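Re: the 125-residue chain
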Amino acid sequence: QVQLVESGGGLVQAGGSLRLSCAGSGRTFSSYYMAWFRQAPGKEREFVAAISRSGNGTTHADSVKGRFTISRDNAKNTVYLQMNSLKPEDTAVYFCAADGRLGIVGIRIDEYAYWGQGTQVTVSS
C-alpha cells in the first residue's frame, strides 16, 4: 500500500510554468511505477506521463511532449511533473498514480492501483 498526496497546482497564465509534486508514504516508494493523469471538466481521465522505478524510463503523452517532464526523487518519496509552456487546454485536475506490478511505464488508467486526490491546474488565456 502507498498513499499519495499531490500538491503544486494553481492558477497560471498561458505560457507559464508549474511544478506538481506527489508525495508518497511508505518505505517502498522506489518499488512503484508512477504516473500522472489529468481530467478536464466533462472529459475522460487521460494519461500525461509515467516513470519507471529508477526514473530511467519515462513516457509522455504526445500532447505534452516537449513541455512537461516527469521525474522522481526516491530519497524523498516524491514524483514531480514539471509543466512548461502551459496552455489553456492543460486546465484539469491532475492525479498522481502508482502501481507496484508494472514492468513497463503503463499508460492505462486500469494499470494503476493507487491514486491521489488530485490537484487543480488552471491556465488562463
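The radius of gyration is 13 Å.
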